[in-house]
Amino acid sequence: MSILSHRQFDIGTKFMRQLPAQPCLLCGAASHVGLCCAACDTELPRLNAEHCPICALPTPSGSVCGACLQQPPAFDHTVAAFSYDFPVDKLIRALKFHEHLALVNHLADALAQRVDTRPDRLVALPLHPARLRERGFNQSLLLARRISRRLHIPLLPDACERVRNTPPQSSLPWKERDKNMRQAFVCSSTDVRGKHIAIVDDVMTTGASTGELARALKQAGAREVSVWVVARTLPHTH
Known about the structure:
Blueprint: H1 6-18, E1 22-23, E2 30-31, H2 38-43, H3 66-70, E3 77-83, H4 88-98, H5 103-112, E4 121-124, H6 129-135, H7 139-151, E5 160-162, H8 174-181, E6 185-187, E7 196-204, H9 208-219, E8 224-232
Parallel strand pairs: 3-8, 4-7, 7-8
Antiparallel strand pairs: 1-2, 5-6
């Protein structure tokens, strides 16, 4: 069950239907409910199948997967709105690499609706300053700001920083991604001590980035760390 107020959400839906229709981003049909029409939104690859509660990979009956049992990651729980499949993969790339910032609210709201546990604070996966200057924005921070407003959970925008300008994870083989992210983050905020922190990011593939940030948060005193991602890469999409 979502922690969003159903009453507020219903009022927002009625208001949206009174606005002029806009072309659906995916099919071009008239949409009164946002960037995607109701039909396309229904067909998006939501992560509804049973999955590991720690890493969100598919498992029978929603049990903890073997990998998390053998080598538990630094984070304790993962929430993902979608699997990283078409067309969600295209939407995320359009946001991340082509500055389609109008997608932020749509993707963040889809993630917020999947949340059923309220953490104490949110943090966004940080970019290295050099990468931030190159891109001009941090899509994870934009998503986190939207979710913070929707769910009324304080955001700590400066609690963590990326201190190593590593190559993009997507450019590396899976086996090299953990090594690439080692000691890439530091957390100097005292506001995480004893608290449940949720990391917001766009995509989780191996979990190396979020795992390393979770490790830094726990070293700074965080009691529990969850990961909230718009999409989770599943084995068949590798």
